[in-house]
Amino acid sequence: MMPPTMDPGRATIGTIFIGRVMGKASRNKRESARERIAAQRAAERRAQRRNRMYITGGSILGVVAIVVAFVLFKTTQSPASTNTASATSATGTALPASVIKDITSVPSSTLASVGTGTADPKSVSLVSSAKPLTSGGKPQILYIGAEYCPYCATERWSMAVALSRFGTFSGLHGIHSSSSDVYASTPTLTFYKSTYTSKYLTFTPVETQTEKQGAALQKTTAAQNALLTKYDSPPYVAQSNAGAIPFIDFGGKYFIHGAQYNPQILSGQTWAQVAAALKDPNSAVAKGAVGAANMITATICKTTNNQPSSVCTSPTIKTIEGQI
User: Fold this and answer.
1) 102-134: string of b/e by CB count within 10 Å (b at 16+)?
2) How far is it, in rounded angstroms, from Cα 81 to Cα 75?
3) CA 112, 117, 122: angle at the middle one, nearest 5?
4) What pLDDT band is residue 90 in, cutting at 50, 70 and 90?
5) pLDDT tens readout for residues 281-293
6) Exposed, middle or buried: residue 91 (CB in 10 Å: 0-12, 13-18, 19+)?
């Protein structure tokens, strides 16, 4: 607001008062005219001030209305997500850096000591007639699973350990499998909204449902669904296991159907406890998860032409490659 100005009408009223005291009629007329003019000007100034207030107030209200409309618009929008059916689904719990480090940098001595551990030695199958699966000129590893799935929960630990030997993960979060399925609430990771970079391969994860079974999360493409339909059914798997997840395609040549070790191993543990146990070659977790990770590593080496050599030429991996 501008500071108020002195009203000329007040000075005129004072003059009129003096004129009346003096009793001069002519002056009374002149002062009356001046009073009317001054009053008119004062009224005009008051009207101008009101107009400025209305304009200013209207502008402020207009800005407020725009801001409110923008906020309401943003809050009703879903975040963008590639290949996502329900972008509002939870992405899990952020894990401490120490836990991520335990998962992605298992000591080489532990890897060598465990070997295949208690992982199923027949969990990897070869399909020589399959068409190579590549992306960006590199072998593609396709994972199809779901957050509620306890067998997927088991396998993700091994995949994270193995894939970390060929590249770098970011955005891994902790979740649990469904609380109403077998091996309820198995602690695990989710690949949803994670990223993975590697000069040797491309990793494409698809988490089809959330921790709540039946709630859609990501959709498979037509090509991915065709692979699942063809190679996750007889004669490649028993009829009783047709369509089972997790389904992992290694470059279109090697496949894993289901978990490679018993999910019961992880029961009742926290993410930090599982991650820490990965370093201990004598733990049941390491024998299962790291054993499976070594098998995954050997399978990847067979698709990358044994690159990098620092990983693929280790005696443990070479031995496992010969068994696949």
Assistant:
1) bbbebeeebbebbbbbbbbeebbeeeeebeebe
2) 16
3) 115
4) low
5) 999 999 999 999 9
6) middle
